[in-house]
């Protein structure tokens, strides 16, 4: 996996499932992260080859719920991101999935109480020994690249010190979200503090924060010197952000996303959440469209709502 000059789709819970990753890749994303999956949850799964869809599914034993779905087409660009607080569990999880993905990433930035209380996400930022343990265990035992994604610490010096320590574990790249744990998404990302990390390391750094247009990829790269750029909300609101020719109308992207969700039989909750994020950003959830999305119970209902009934039928017929 090459981390130089890449446009990267950031990990996003509920949003970053297979249809959205495929959509982003279609518009030009070079590397696509899956949503964070907690090691405990993944360890309850078995790997199932789904001949019907042409996917590889990680299915929770007992419930039958699909926890992670991927396909051979994205094998060389998809990154499996996990939430973990234990090297042994992280390794067992990575071993389950590593043959089907391009790289493994550890989330060290999530500030949500669920993550912090479980010792995961941003809780790791204050436990450098545990970071070493998790990353070196993975790197020693896996053939795929291992990376992690951090937030900024209280001072630029602290961030640089941690980044240097992470580099020593042998990670292939480091993604830096230019916000501190207490920052809100509306707070400006501190590109200059990402630049401090870039200047101190020799491995590729992936800069993340406040990329909302194609031109921002170049701006953040210039400001930070980072090897590659990662975008979350800018992609969620319009996946064609990766397109050098400019963004397509969001209504068009939404329809394409619905079609991909039908094609890959996506979880309806994840599909609804992604569409609602789009509506909330560009319009208003209280409008009839938002209310109608809320009422949908299946991805086929969403297909009907967006005039994709014929596509639904065509997909079904092509598989029977
Ligand atoms: C996120 N983010 C995130 N980060 C992560 O490491 N794992 C995850 O699963 C998620 N989930 C997630 C869901 C949603 C809906 C959003 C908006 C964000 C954080 C994300 O990857 C990114 O670091 C920040 O959003 C900053 O980038 P932008 O939005 O300024 O481009």
Automatic annotation (TrEMBL):
Ribosomal protein is among the record's keywords: no
Pfam families cross-referenced by the UniProt entry: Dus
Required cofactor names: FMN
InterPro entries: Aldolase_TIM, DUS-like_FMN-bd, tRNA-DUS-like, tRNA_hU_synthase_CS
Entry keywords, A to Z: Flavoprotein, FMN, Oxidoreductase, tRNA processing
Keyword tRNA processing attached: yes
One GO MF term: flavin adenine dinucleotide binding
Domain (DUS-like FMN-binding) ranges: 9-258
Gene3D superfamilies recorded: Aldolase class I
GO cellular component, as recorded: cytoplasm
Cited PANTHER family: TRNA-DIHYDROURIDINE(20) SYNTHASE [NAD(P)+]-LIKE
Name of the protein: DUS-like FMN-binding domain-containing protein
Native source species: Acorus calamus (Sweet flag)
Lineage, highest ranks first: Eukaryota, Viridiplantae, Streptophyta, Embryophyta, Tracheophyta
